[in-house]
Amino acid sequence: MHYDLIVIGMGLSGLMAATTAAEIGKKVLIIGKGTGSLCLFSNTIDLLGVLPKGIKINDGLSQWVKDHSEHPYSKLEWERIKEALFSFTSLFPPPYSFQNIDDGNCFIPTGTGTLRPTYLIPVTMIAGTSLNKRDGLIAGFKALKDFYPNYVAAQLKCRGVTLPLPETSTPQMTSAAITRLMEKETFRDRISKEIKKHLNGETRIGLPAILGLRDPIGVKKDLEEIIGVEVFEIPMLPPSIPGMRIFNRFKEWLIQRGVTFLLGHAISKANLKGKRCEGVEVFHPPVSSSYSADSYILATGRFIGGGLVAGEQKILEAIFDLPVFQPKSREDWFGNSFFNEHPIHRAGILTDPFFRPVDEKGNLVLENVWVAGSILAHHHCFEEKSREGIEIATGYWAAKNAFQI
């Protein structure tokens, strides 16, 4: 079957690319062997978390690009990044929307009790950004072993409480299981009344980010009505329930607009002829299927997503065998100390200004393939706290460029 665009990868960059193409009426196929890192790590939208507190994002980002001329952001002016962010936020209208505070980074509590800078946050986390000492009660559950309320509370100078879970005798439960319980009215009623017993003048309740998948705002509102104070979510260890909400919203929107999903499928081969890709083959035992398109977007991520593979002597790109920018020898992959910067984190695919892959001399490798997301070279997104920003901006503009060149 033939498409206008085939997107390879179902992380945030791939979803953004598919959405951008679908918005202009293109026939799109998105292929992914998994749901990407969205459902593991993403709770908020990090744009550039290393900026000093109080700096406006447009000013700070402009200076960052001047100082990091090879970074993926260097191919995009602030206005183009802002356009991509607007495209993302438009998919999340109220009540469950993403917001920015004062056009800069805000600081949200985390599951380790630290304050993490980020740019866009879901409204379920807003109240946590202005938490004062002894202003909040941090509540967790005995059966949930991935969130330690007393430890979190101690770092935030608040009180913590660990509650029993009603309606279950299971000694341990996952965050996903408790999230499903939160969608039951009887469970919310009992939990709210239990939390209310422990209030001692606090005006906010911090809970792990498990306020339901389908209607977190409704869950939040019900809890607040019974407890009588504001409730906010705190990001925790994987899996990420807020990340699942993002993925589900994209998937719902894309399917409504006729985008074809191949989830749980890996590409076994790309058929190349000269500088063009003529099709890809997907092997789903025992069947192998072929798909073709006018354009392709590679958004497979780095090592976690399998987009880059570390061989014995070099790093390889897994689908098109594109040239990978990397240290010259394996010995140079890592720094001398664990806490040093490791050059392997900046490995990835080099591109031209339109996000088409090039070699180290700048020669175009494939003319109908575009590259987006964390697989791009010259960034360390976890250290910079820029992963979602890179994925949204490059996914959006890779798709735009695919139909403008």
Q: Classify the helix fraction into a percent range.
A: 25-40%
Estimated radius of gyration: 22 Å
Enumerate the spans where pLDDT stays under 50 for 5 or more consecutive residues.
Answer: none
Global geometry: globular
What's the average pLDDT? Answer: 93
Distance between the termini: 23 Å
Separate helix tally: 11
SSE order, one letter for each helix or strand: EHEHHHEEEEEHEHHEHEHEEEEEEEHH
| CATH H-level superfamily of the largest domain | FAD/NAD(P)-binding domain
What would CATH call the class of the largest domain? Alpha Beta
Number of domains: 2
* CATH architecture term of the largest domain: 3-Layer(bba) Sandwich
- Structural category is alpha/beta
State which percent range the strand residues make up.
15-25%
Main beta-sheet strand count, sense and barrel state: 7 strands, mixed
If you consult CATH, what is the topology of the largest domain? FAD/NAD(P)-binding domain
| Number of beta-strand segments | 17
